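Tutorial handout. Part one gives the primary structure; part two gives the three-dimensional structure as tokens.
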Amino acid sequence: MTEKTTGQESRDDLLLSIRRLAKIVLDKLEQGSSEGTLDQAQIRLLGSIATRSHALWQEALNPRPRRGLRREMREEEDRLADQHTGE
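Part two.
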């Protein structure tokens, strides 16, 4: 029973850490975009981190392997970059 509890606690800690990371990155991305203090490389990097943290979140919630995840991540990164350059 303690193994399951410990496993659940570590999973909950992982989810909490991922959530914190995503919030920090998205806040920095939003702030930098609105203030114009980020260059294109920084925006792309923060967008990539946000996308990967989202993928980690999904993986932690549902640990089954997903097909095409890498392709989906690249598409999302490109969409974020295109969205920002269109502003």
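Part three, for discussion. The chain has a mean pLDDT of 83. The two ends are 53 Å apart (CA to CA).
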